[in-house]
Prior knowledge:
uracil DNA N-glycosylase activity, 43% helix, single chain, DNA damage, Uracil-DNA glycosylase, putative
Amino acid sequence: MGLCFSVKKGVKPPPSLMNMYKSLENDKKLKFKKPQHGDLTKWANQVEYNKPESHKNSGWTDFTTEVIKIINTECSDIIFLLWGMPAQKKASFVDKNKHNVLLTSHPSPLSASRGFLEAQHFSKCNEILQNLVIFKK
């Protein structure tokens, strides 16, 4: 399926997913009704087809900012891949003396030629990780 915890309809949901369902049902702030299957495709498809940033005003911006702030404070040697202008705005929440920040255009066909295709972020990540492993040995 390619989705964590998800299984095709007709396949028994794994125990971890059942516990997630239980937790959602027990949370009185939510109106969650447990589905009769373990297919989480609907959870992954939360934006409108062919409408970039249709999720923009649904709270994800604030959520990701808070996650980045926590990671910045609680962790070290994280590699942040900030692709596209909205993601690059998050760089201000990252201590560059403590973490690595790689910035480039978004991989979208509309902007990939403005830096993403040449950025070599995957090999740069590998180099950074190899240096961290060598340094920590």
